[in-house]
Write a structure and sequence with these properties.
This protein is an alpha+beta fold. The chain is 37% helix and 10% strand.
Length: 267
């Protein structure tokens, strides 16, 4: 009975405190103003409590992300975690790279045709397209008589081809592809000789003109003078070029001159 009376006193105390609670106390003596302040306090308290309750309920039902670490997991631990958390589980390796031979074993068995004794022709490449096969092949087999004999076994017609001499100097290695030799036009070396005398004779300049500055001493003024020499020789051209290289002009008789008249190529 005493406990019930005590609880009732506590309830009445807090009810009285709540009904008279005024958070907006303006020290006013007007009963209407005080009543409005108490009502505003009750509304604020209700809204605050409701907001707090909603926030508590929302937080309680919202999933929480927890990061858990398992030190040195076994393969069974990893498989269990992969089933439970396939999207978030991460198990980085201790080493950045692992050799394949550590966890991969390869056992191969070949077709019986691979066990038949075969002969290899060095430098000969087989391709789907004959042209590509020729490009990728080399003349390595043509330096060996026995290799040539094996190559000619595939042909019904006999061919008399002498082997190449590997002792001769060459800028191409023995294993150079045929395409490489074709791109270089099979040229071992090339010498280009240009004969300027032949070019000058083929040019046959009709005239040479040059301009120089002449100063008149009594007026201290300068005057440009143009001189034209008809059918100049090579010696005259060289002398004029040394003196008037900036203004000398010697046009050729023909617009174009074949290279063969003054250039000689030896390969």
């Amino acid at each position: 009975m005493f406990e019930f009376h005590l609880l009732r006193l506590i309830y009445n105390y807090f009810r009285l405190k709540f009904t008279s609670l005024n958070l907006y106390d303006s020290r006013s003596t007007d009963p209407t103003t005080v009543h409005h302040e108490i009502l505003s306090t009750r509304l604020f308290t209700f809204l605050f409590g409701a907001s707090l309750a909603i926030l508590t309920i929302f937080t309680s039902f919202r999933p929480q992300t927890t990061l858990q670490n398992i030190q040195s997991p076994s393969i069974f631990d990893y498989e269990r975690l992969l089933k439970q958390y396939p999207n978030t589980v991460q198990c980085p390796c201790t080493f950045i790279s692992i050799p394949y031979e550590t966890f991969i074993t390869i056992e191969t068995s070949f077709h019986q045709v691979c066990s038949i004794a075969n002969e290899t022709l060095p430098g000969i490449v087989i391709d789907c397209l004959p042209l590509q096969a020729i490009y990728a092949s080399s003349f390595e087999c043509f330096y060996n008589q026995s290799c040539l004999n094996m190559l000619f076994k595939a042909y019904s017609n006999k061919m008399d081809i002498q082997i190449l001499n590997k002792s001769l100097p060459s800028r191409f290695p023995l294993t150079a592809s045929i395409k490489t030799l074709i791109d270089d036009l099979f040229i071992e070396k090339m010498m280009i000789q240009t004969n300027y005398d032949l070019y000058f004779n083929a040019c046959r300049s009709v005239y040479c003109s040059y301009t120089y500055t002449q100063r008149f001493h009594w007026t201290k003024s300068s005057n440009w003078t143009t001189v034209t020499i008809h059918s100049p020789s090579k010696k005259q051209y060289e002398d004029l070029y040394q003196q008037y290289s900036d203004t000398l002009q010697c046009p050729c008789t023909s617009i174009s001159i074949p290279y063969g008249k003054f250039i000689q190529i030896t390969s």
